Amino acid sequence: MVPPVAVSPLIKTARYSALIAGIIYGKRRYDHLKPIAAEERRIEEEEKKVREEQERIAKQLAEGTLFTQTYCTAHMWTSQSRLHCQISYFALVLTANEDSILK
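RE: above sequence
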């Protein structure tokens, strides 16, 4: 078997420097991307709630069991509460139109 070759101290220093630089870069990149991903997850959760609400209302409309309900109880006007208000207004208008048609 061939004896191992002695590696130059310059090459060793360069290797470890590159390793440490890569670790530092990865940590900084992770810290930069983490809040962005958290915000995307939060937005996706809000959109999922709105989507499920729309599906529920559509299902109730199809079954004809939609009652007059109010969802505008939010304290602040966020995009989510505006969407809930729009959905409930749409449902109330449809319910009111159905009642006037039946009369």
